[in-house]
Design goal:
Length: 243
């Protein structure tokens, strides 16, 4: 794992909130007569690279602790509407016991895999960014969003990677977007970075009227390539839609 601050340290969250609060206070003062800042991105391509989950002592203790009931409730209630990839990962644990086991750690409840690690990280990153966004909005309540580095079979200087930790594990990619939407309500939308033309492959785009189970968050592309057959050229069905 790369040298990073652990989001499981409360002092890190406190420092991040204080810094973002100060930034937004400054933006509010400068922007009062200009109205040139219309939205703000919170963090950048959030997630952990180098491993599928944080393996510091405090993170490992949290991973072994019982999965919060709110997570299990969400997965059970919205099972048929969850992303197909996460259902495929969690199905063995769900059907083995006629439902998810409560009172167990993440591995005991959902099984052992990189995708379960990613689900764990997504839940905690979502809560983290929710707190940071709330601190900023308390000073200046403009729309806020988070972008995400999307997975792909290819790895380039611009992104990619087909497993959590090669791409940032825990970010708001489609397979865990349900978790982000529930536990990070302070963010107004999520923005996939289409630097390699991966958007349609991962299911972003489409018509919510044809599929009421689709995500209903506004969609925008914050980083899009313009090269032939990549980026914006490959996702016309997603423009102007909701996910």
């Amino acid at each position: 794992m790369e040298d990073v601050f652990s989001l499981f340290r409360n002092e890190i969250l406190t420092a991040d909130c204080n810094a973002f609060r100060g930034l937004m206070r400054h933006v509010a003062e400068v922007n009062e007569d200009r109205d040139t800042v219309i939205m703000v991105q919170v963090e950048n391509e959030v997630g952990l690279r180098g491993d599928s989950r944080d393996r510091s002592d405090i993170a490992h203790t949290t991973f072994k602790a019982p999965v919060p009931d709110c997570i299990v409730d969400k997965l059970e209630k919205d099972w048929d509407c969850l992303n197909e990839d996460i259902r495929k990962v969690l199905s063995p644990a769900r059907y083995k016991n006629g439902g998810f086991v409560r009172g167990e750690g993440w591995e005991g409840a959902f099984g052992s895999s990189q995708q379960v690690d990613e689900l764990f990280m997504a839940y905690h990153y979502a809560q983290y960014l929710n707190a940071v966004a709330a601190a900023g909005k308390a000073e200046y309540a403009v729309p806020m969003f988070s972008n995400c580095w999307l997975p792909s079979c290819e790895v380039t200087a611009a992104g990619g990677g087909n497993s959590p930790g090669i791409y940032p594990s825990g970010g708001p990619i489609p397979s865990v977007l349900d978790i982000w939407q529930l536990f990070c309500p302070e963010l107004d939308f999520f923005s996939p970075d289409g630097l390699g033309g991966y958007i349609p492959i991962l299911g972003w785009g489409g018509d919510v009227d044809q599929n009421p189970c689709m995500h209903t968050t506004p969609y925008t592309g914050s980083e899009i390539q313009r090269e032939h057959n990549t980026g914006i050229r490959k996702c016309p069905g997603g423009l102007g839609k909701k996910l």
